[in-house]
């Protein structure tokens, strides 16, 4: 049975952020993820998780200046010290939220930047991250993201359909990088939405990547809406993942076309979508 986590930067945006924990639990989710915890004290977020019996399963390492177009620091030459310092915040939030997995975003390769130099910096920085976070029981994940699209115009903060110029785009490149990084606690994070946009062949890719796969996310293509909207037949993929023995979390990182709860019909067969009393306990 798939285990779904609500991405609180995408779902329940009808509500203030701190109220989304309750909404997720009431809708049958047992876990949450979101990109940026740093806007809130870790003790406050911990209290929301505890109050609603939720597990935190993924957040992002600091990604630089989002409003200036930065999408991570790991591949940026000259920013190594800043990247290293950012890991201290990851440790603080990871421990407070009891979250074992952090997504380290690569960054954008801008005009005039040498891609090979960026890749060398990326590999070195991921090794540093792995070594710093390993004593704290944390796994680093890397994610291919499509570079064709960008921030959703008029959408909530941190919701995107892609990241223009992003360094890492394809699953095969991610696997080669994992080989180069060569750390047991650096693993693969795949988003079926980005995979479909750039690669297709989702079933074959999931089969091939399963030994490295640590986290998965879903959304419909096109539009990044509910997973029952568009060209991907997710029930088949969920059954495939069960047959392959995937036991990681599946993050619901999609933009509801309307009310979040009204759009959860796709998840009813998996125990999500209920607002019954006591849900989330």
Briefly say what this structure is:
This protein has 8 helices and 8 strands.
Description:
The chain has 281 residues and is an alpha/beta fold. The protein has one domain (3-270): Alpha-Beta Barrel (TIM Barrel), CATH 3.20.20. The chain is built from eight helices and eight strands; from the N terminus they run E-H-E-H-E-H-E-H-E-H-E-H-H-E-H-E. It has helices at 20-26, 42-51, 80-97, 115-133, 171-181, 192-198, 202-209, 234-244, and strands at 3-7, 31-33, 55-60, 101-103, 139-142, 186-191, 213-218, 249-252. Helix 2 (42-51) links the parallel strand 2 and strand 3 (55-60). The radius of gyration is 18 Å and the shape is globular. The two termini are 19 Å apart.
Q: Mean pLDDT score, rounded?
A: 93
Sheet with the most strands: spatial strand order: 1-2-3-4-5-6-7-8
**Corresponding CATH superfamily:** Divalent-metal-dependent TIM barrel enzymes
Separation of the first and last Cα atoms: 19 Å
CATH architecture: Alpha-Beta Barrel
Number of domains: 1
Helix fraction?
25-40%
Secondary-structure blueprint:
Blueprint: E1 3-7, H1 20-26, E2 31-33, H2 42-51, E3 55-60, H3 80-97, E4 101-103, H4 115-133, E5 139-142, H5 171-181, E6 186-191, H6 192-198, H7 202-209, E7 213-218, H8 234-244, E8 249-252
Parallel strand pairs: 1-2, 1-8, 2-3, 3-4, 4-5, 5-6, 6-7, 7-8
Helix pairs in contact: 2-3, 3-4, 7-8
């Amino acid at each position: 049975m798939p285990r779904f986590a609500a991405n609180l930067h995408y779902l329940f945006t009808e509500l203030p952020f701190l109220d989304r924990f309750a909404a997720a639990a009431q809708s049958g989710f047992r876990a949450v993820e979101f990109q940026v915890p740093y806007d809130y004290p870790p003790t406050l977020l911990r209290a929301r998780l505890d109050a609603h019996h939720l597990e935190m399963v993924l957040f992002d390492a600091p990604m630089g200046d989002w409003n200036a177009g930065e999408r991570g620091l790991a591949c940026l030459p000259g920013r190594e010290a800043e990247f290293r310092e950012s890991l201290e915040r990851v440790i603080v939030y990871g421990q407070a939220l009891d979250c074992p997995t952090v997504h380290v975003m690569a960054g954008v390769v801008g005009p005039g930047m040498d891609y090979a130099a960026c890749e060398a910096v990326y590999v070195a920085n991921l090794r540093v991250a792995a070594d710093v976070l390993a004593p704290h029981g944390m796994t680093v994940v890397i994610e291919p993201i499509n570079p064709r699209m960008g921030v959703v115009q008029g959408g909530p903060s941190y919701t995107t359909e892609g990241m223009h110029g992003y360094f890492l785009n394809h699953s095969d490149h991610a696997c080669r990088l994992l080989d180069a990084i060569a750390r047991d606690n650096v693993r693969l994070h795949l988003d079926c939405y980005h995979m479909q946009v750039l690669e297709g062949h989702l079933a074959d890719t999931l089969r091939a990547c399963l030994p490295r796969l640590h986290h998965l996310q879903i959304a419909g293509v096109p539009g990044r809406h509910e997973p029952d909207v568009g060209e991907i037949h997710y029930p088949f993929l969920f059954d495939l993942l069960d047959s392959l023995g995937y036991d990681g979390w599946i993050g619901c990182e999609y933009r509801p076309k309307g009310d979040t709860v009204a759009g959860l019909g796709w998840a009813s067969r998996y125990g999500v979508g209920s607002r019954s009393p006591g849900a989330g306990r």
